[in-house]
Amino acid sequence: xxxxxxxxxxxxxxxxxxxDILTALTRVxxxxxxxxxxxxRLSGFRVARVLTAERHPQADKxxxxxxxxxxxxxxxxxGAPNARAGLVGVFGLPGATVPSNGMVLRVAAIRxxxxxxxxxxxxxxxxxxxxxxxxxxxxxxxxxxxxxxxARLDDPVIDVSVTPNRPDCMGVRGIARDLAAAxxxxxxxxxxxxxxxxxxxxxxxxxxxxxxxAFYAQSxxxxxxxxxxxxxRRRLTAIGQKPISALVDVTNYVMxxxxxxxxxxxxxxxxxxxxxxxxxxxxxVLALNGRAYALRAGMTVIADDAAVHDIGGVMGGEHSGVTAxxxxxLIECAYFDPDAIARTGQALQLSSDARTRFxxxxxxxxxxxxxxxxTRLVVELCGGSPSEVTRVGQPPLEPRRYAYDPDRAETLxxxxxxxxxxxxxxxxxxxxxxxxxxxxxxxxxxxxxxSADLVEEVIRIEGIDNVPSVALPRPAGIATPxxxxxxxxxxxxxxxxxxxxxxxxxxWSFVSEPAAAAFGGGAWTLANPISExxxxxxxxxxxxxxxxxxxxxxxxxxxxRLFELGRRYLPKDDKAGKDGAADERATLGLVLAGNxxxxxxxxxxxxxxxxxxxxxxxxALLAAAGAPVDNLQVMTxxxxxxxxxxxxxxxxxxxxxxKTLLAAFGMLHPRTLKAFDLSGPVxxxxxxxxxxxxxxxxxxxxxxxxxxxPYAPPALxxxxxxxxxxxxxxxxxxxxxxxxRGADKAAIVSARVFDVFTGAGVEPGTKSxxxxxxxxxxxxxxxxxxxxxxxDKVVTAAAKQGATLRG
Length: 807
Known about the structure:
- 24% of the residues lie in helices and 27% in strands.
- By secondary structure, it is α+β, with helices and mostly antiparallel strands.
- A hairpin with a 4-residue loop joins strand 5 and strand 6.
- Helix 5 packs antiparallel against helix 12, helix 8 runs antiparallel to helix 9 and helix 19 (733-741) runs antiparallel to helix 20 (784-799).
């Protein structure tokens, strides 16, 4: 929200300095984003008169001017077609900086002729778009005077950030009201006298009462539309609004000045009554931004007998817009439902100043006053004869009243404020405070919903910086840990992932519908999303990580190793969660894309990530989380876990038993990669942290869950034995390894595959799998008989998997 200091003082009677005003704005909750004074950028520019103008000896399109900027003639080379003797314009002195391009003016030779500055155009000074010639000022403009002062541009532009719950501050008057309540002056009276009209008002109707609660209108005949007066153009230009014509500028001015959006129609372009109704599917309107929009059933529009002319409360239509030839106008002042406006704007992906105000909630009691002010301005600037006002519908004016206890300012807000001072603050903000402390909320404050909000009003005006800092009570003795076992688990896994060279990412908890569909679809869709790209609560952490990987790879990253700890959002009856009772599941997502190994003279070609890289990361992180990784089973997808996003032959799951799913890992399906515009293989992992069983003592809060066991090296040296088995191709190495490791749990401490072979010497349909088994003696060394007995157990256990010793 931008406004100038002089504009603010139209509503606020104050002697406060700019610094005091800026400080007070932030103090009352209107954060100042920036302050810009155009006069500071124009400090080196003066009003100057062209004394003589002669053709440049070396260029037909240039002239050599003699310019008087208050201190005698200066020679200037100029290419403007309107430069001539007697013209009064704006001259940039050597050393001045041109606002439009940052060029510092200096004495220089142009085509062999010395030039001592520059005569400036409107665009060069960022005062407009005109660049066809230099600025022409009135002939009586004081030569040599500071141009910014002459043009009354010494008027700081203040930019404040207005939170969505303060629609009253989307107008300059609302901001002035807050400052007056903060003690920086008094709020001036607003002239809302109705404009006397003659003849019947325009024919307007409401057919969509849910979308348009009230529709007030007044017509003015015999107007002469043209350029707005200088004061109005200057104010709109200062805040970045482009002046268009007097009729259009009046509506923009009232919207910014008072927070009341309006619309003006050219009556000659209307056919029949103007009706607020629900749109029909595939109706189309050409909006004022030059784009055509296909409407959906239920959107509120303003239409006549022939066509739709306005997307109600969002943007007007081009067909019925006013032009320089407009002579009769209809001024619309309506109240549109905020939720309906928000839904329409989001569906059409159309933003406007009007939508910003309507969807936050404009003052429903300001229809008559807003229409009267706009009509008066139209008559003053464009002439014409107004009609009577037509009023259709009823705005929501039901009073909101809350019982208030002044003691709550201290008990809830932490600041003791005298009751009389609280009454004064609330009254200055527009609240009505009864003797029994029944407080009636003003119609322009839809954000107030109970006594707690009233406490907030008192505290922010009195000064939140006056609230004393009070330490929270702390019991005697040693403080106990505050982190829960789940929080400790997440910390441990996060540190382990970072230690393994992975980069942590933080992505949105919302994704687009196509991104969610790639992972089975989202269970929760927002009714009022920030945008269509952030509409669905993510069913997986991988969509956000894949989008981040895609951006990094397209910007030249050769390898991407990203992880994120967060929540995925599932339906309550989802079988993958604990008891199906929670909607949010603690999860770690991990994406590996690009090169796992860079090319080199020793390593050869670059190598991409594969499913085994993903498996290694999953097992390492599960080990860091305290999961019993030695007992994990590698399984494929089934009904418990939906694996459509994964490559069917290069992915799997890690489980404790068939039903306890701890992680999914592997390569993503090419179809999934295409949905995220990724090329090349991508490996991924999802760790389901809520499924990891707590260690003994951890759930009881004793802290034993992640404590490292004391280091106790074995007294005797381990023994290693190698076995090579021939097994059917359908038997997994994991199943064989688990069977062998369980052959003698007391002696066998580990078993791992170190070779897999098919080909000569191995029967078709089988494979050779070689395992290394580590045996650890306890109290005494193994004898040959002990080793043979263990070997027999290993062979027997392997035989149950269809394995035989390879000869």
